[in-house]
């Protein structure tokens, strides 16, 4: 007998290859952890029924390939996405710098009001392996108005909290739009013309890979005032 739920939330997990996207989906949906994974080819998804503050919600979680050759395919799955878990690896500065690509990709393809949560994976790593400190994650999350978590798939740290926060933000977004919370949303999101979905400013993306987040933010604010 199928379990009843009142709404389905489509969620994408985005980020570079090997940041732990498949791992976090398996850890959250199956409560399993594997030391090794084969890189996702294209798209995969799992579903999880959650109790969101007393209301049964089905999360449809799409695990997307991070490799460059699959990125065009990934964009097709933005349609109808209500939330995005954007990931990087705290032991990989490249994966952090490449958040610029993923944020631009979200801007270009997702609904303007899509909910975003940022997660820095592998926070259990030894200090000598960490390449991105927590403050840098907090800073970019603040600039883009995203809740932020450092997570560990290996030690199951903050994973449930990240997904539940994403689900709650989606619910708040639906309520803000005046949608009935107890009605399953099978419609598609519509993108408003001219809206970038990233708040009041748009970054010059070529700056972002540099180790100067504060400078980037200042430049972006200055650009909007000109």
TrEMBL record:
<dbReference type="InterPro" id="IPR001806">
    <property type="entry name" value="Small_GTPase"/>
</dbReference>
<keyword id="KW-0342">GTP-binding</keyword>
<dbReference type="GO" id="GO:0003924">
    <property type="term" value="F:GTPase activity"/>
</dbReference>
<dbReference type="InterPro" id="IPR005225">
    <property type="entry name" value="Small_GTP-bd"/>
</dbReference>
<feature type="region of interest" description="Disordered">
    <location>
        <begin position="175"/>
        <end position="197"/>
    </location>
</feature>
<protein>
    <recommendedName>
        <fullName>Ras-related protein Rab-1</fullName>
    </recommendedName>
</protein>
<comment type="function">
    <text>Protein transport. Probably involved in vesicular traffic from ER to Golgi.</text>
</comment>
<feature type="compositionally biased region" description="Basic and acidic residues">
    <location>
        <begin position="175"/>
        <end position="192"/>
    </location>
</feature>
<keyword id="KW-0547">Nucleotide-binding</keyword>
<dbReference type="GO" id="GO:0005525">
    <property type="term" value="F:GTP binding"/>
</dbReference>
<keyword id="KW-0449">Lipoprotein</keyword>
<comment type="similarity">
    <text>Belongs to the small GTPase superfamily. Rab family.</text>
</comment>
<dbReference type="InterPro" id="IPR027417">
    <property type="entry name" value="P-loop_NTPase"/>
</dbReference>
<dbReference type="InterPro" id="IPR050305">
    <property type="entry name" value="Small_GTPase_Rab"/>
</dbReference>
<dbReference type="Pfam" id="PF00071">
    <property type="entry name" value="Ras"/>
</dbReference>
<keyword id="KW-0636">Prenylation</keyword>
């Amino acid at each position: 007998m199928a379990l009843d739920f009142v709404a389905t939330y489509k969620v994408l997990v985005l980020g570079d290859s090997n940041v732990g996207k498949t791992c976090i989906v398996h850890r959250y949906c199956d409560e399993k952890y594997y030391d090794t994974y084969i890189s996702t080819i294209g798209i995969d998804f799992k579903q999880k029924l959650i109790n969101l503050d007393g209301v049964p919600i089905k999360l449809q979680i799409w695990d997307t390939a991070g490799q460059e050759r699959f990125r065009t395919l990934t964009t097709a799955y933005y349609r109808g996405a209500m939330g995005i878990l954007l990931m990087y690896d705290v032991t990989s500065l490249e994966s952090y710098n490449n958040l610029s690509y993923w944020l631009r990709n979200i801007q270009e393809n997702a609904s303007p009001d899509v909910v975003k949560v940022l997660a820095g994976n592998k926070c259990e790593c030894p200090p000598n392996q960490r390449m991105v400190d927590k403050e840098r994650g907090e800073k970019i999350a603040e600039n883009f108005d995203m809740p932020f978590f450092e997570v560990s798939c290996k030690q199951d740290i903050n994973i449930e909290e990240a997904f539940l926060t994403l689900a709650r933000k989606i619910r708040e977004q639906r309520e803000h739009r005046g949608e009935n919370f107890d009605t399953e949303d099978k419609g598609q999101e519509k993108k408003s013309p001219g809206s970038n979905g990233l708040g009041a400013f748009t970054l010059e993306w070529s700056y972002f890979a540099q180790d100067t987040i504060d400078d980037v933010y200042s430049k972006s604010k200055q650009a909007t005032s000109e």
